[in-house]
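Researcher: Quick test of sequence recovery. Tokens follow.
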């Protein structure tokens, strides 16, 4: 299954900011790890990501390749 995730779904899953996700997604897209598709849902822009042909392509969905949805904690 190679389902796509919208920008907002991925942002919520990774618990990150718009800017941070944009920068990382661009780098992953340049390396062909993910494919970005931009479209419109009515008048609203919609950005979706799915795994590309890079090393991560064989690992399943984007959420599976991320592993746990829990953020690592920093102790100290």
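Model:
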């Amino acid at each position: 299954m190679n389902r796509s995730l919208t920008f907002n779904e991925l942002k919520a899953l990774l618990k990150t900011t718009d800017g941070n996700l944009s920068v990382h997604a661009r780098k992953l897209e340049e390396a062909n790890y993910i494919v970005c598709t931009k479209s419109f849902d009515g008048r609203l822009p919609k950005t979706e990501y799915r795994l590309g042909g890079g090393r991560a392509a064989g690992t399943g969905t984007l959420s599976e390749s991320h592993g746990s949805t829990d953020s690592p904690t920093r102790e100290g």
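Confidence is low (pLDDT under 50) at residues 68-76.
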